[in-house]
Amino acid sequence: MGNVLLHQVIAGLATGGIYASMALALVMIYQATHLVNFAQGELAMFATYICWSLLQAGVPYWAAFFITAAGAFVLGVLVERLIVRLVDDAPILAVVIVFIGLLVIFNSIAGWIFGYAIQPFPSPFPAEPPFGNSYVSSHELGSIAITLVVLALLFVFFRFTPLGLAMRAAAQNPQSSRLVGIRVGWMLALGWGLAGAIGAVAGMMIAPTVFLEPNMMSGILLYAFAAALLGGIDSPGGAVLGGFIVGVLENVVGMLLGTELKLTVALVLIVGVLVIRPQGLFGRVHVTRV
Question: Cα separation of 222 and 267, whole Å?
Answer without folding.
Answer: 8
